[in-house]
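Quick illustration, no need to memorize.
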Amino acid sequence: MLSIVIPTLNEENYLPLLLKSIKQQDFNEEYEIIVADNCSRDTTAKIAKEYGCKVVLGGLPPEGRNEGARIAKGELILFLDADVILPPHFLEKVLEEFKIRKLGAASFPLHPKKNKLDKIIFRVYNLYTRLVQNLWPIAAQAILVRREIHQIIGGFDEKIKIGEDHDYVIRAAKFDKFGFLSQFVLSSSRRFERDGRVRTYLKYFLIGVYMLISGPVESDIFKYRFGHYKKSSK
């Protein structure tokens, strides 16, 4: 069984797109969707229930993912950000590759929807992540993991302010094989549009340098925020 865990905060504009893409998968295995909601002030929780999701109280992304995983019944857990979309045949192909490569944890290439600069930057990210997957595991927006590994490493570190997904797969790779899979997820550009592309890319670069030199980011030095997008953003 597969458990899909999605942390949310005011995601009424994006969550339906993700849930619809999940429901449209030609996937015959049993699965469940768990939405860990951080007290959204919009209709996020209502939408999740309408799609048949289990809804639990979440928090910031690390806490939300942990709360969702706590009630997960699947042997495999797929953690997804609420603003991604799965392409057709994604689940079937991902699980097949995961099993063939005998992985314990995995991340995915990210494809932006439209902006040319985003596409260039994301290609560089995908190439770099693939090249260093056996040396320094990297993950963002989507992680597939065996539940046993999630439990062994104690889940996501809730003290980390940003980059908790990178820290998670680094720790997971110490107990089982990590891999960068071939199937991509469609990634939203909303943070770049809301916070500015140059500013956001520079922040991501500095976060990466910080993590290489000092380890996980446990302070609010980068002032990384969630749930601050305008309701009209698409």
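The longest strand covers residues 2-8.
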